[in-house]
Amino acid sequence: MRSTSTPFHVVVATDENFAMPTAVTLRSLFTAGDTDAQVTVIHDGLSLEAVDSILTSLPPTAPPPTWFDVGDFDVRPTTASHLPDSTYFRLRLADAVPAERGRILYLDVDMLVRRPLGALAAVDMKDHTLAAVQSINYPFVATRGAVDHWRPLGLDPRAGFFNAGLLLVDLQRWRSRQVAERALEYLRSPNCGKGADQEALNVVCTGDWLPLDPTWNQQTPMLDDQHGAHLLYDTETIEAARTDPHIVHFQTRPKPWHRHCDHPWRSEWLDVAAQTRFDIVTDLRERTIADEWRWRTRRAASALVKGR
Ligand SMILES: [Mn+2]
Known about the structure:
It is built from twelve helices and nine strands. By secondary structure, it is α/β, with parallel strands linked by helices.
């Protein structure tokens, strides 16, 4: 059962560039059945236009989200990262919601919610700070690229490593264990690898997270048989997460808003996108034309340089 009678609280983090996918993720959340979900959007100064576009992309009956501006929250990890700065905003999630909230669900904005989240909201977290889905790419702490300095950090190499795209968070434990502060400290330490805040959260919460069924965070590598999902789950569990996931995570590029995306759940994402204020179909068409021109220009330039 839910620990409180208040509606489920969902937190997302975004910036101006991700306004459109944010609208799609939130629209999918309400469409999938969580019509009374409380939403907090963490951002770094969205334009009024972006805020308005996200707001008007939601069903008219949806409770309006609250907006939390991280201000000059400046995370400078010691290692260069391929990820957008907004990935670090999730570390502010406990500041962004009212103190009385027991638990919240953090979602990446490259996710498509397909089922109501009530069962997730009610999960018995068994005194863990987080519940999350184990990473398929980096299933264990000692997997190359997960926590490369696990030995000096004194971590169990065989401990699981989670994907941080979906986090069910016990806020009281998150605060009392100073998860955000310690994650920031790790990000600035020489041991920090390229895994950004996902790595930091795994280091800080190692052994302190409850593994969830993969249907709650269908990671892209689950879609084929070459990526080790079979080392973690039985065939039935994998099949269910593949064919009817509760949440799809468009984890890798191209994202569904990029051209050349052949992800099997893209068309469903586009269906939801079509219900938002963002004209993604026109956008994709224009981008296709722009890319075509860039390609032609590059080819012409390289022909000149190489003389052929
Ligand atoms: Mn993601």
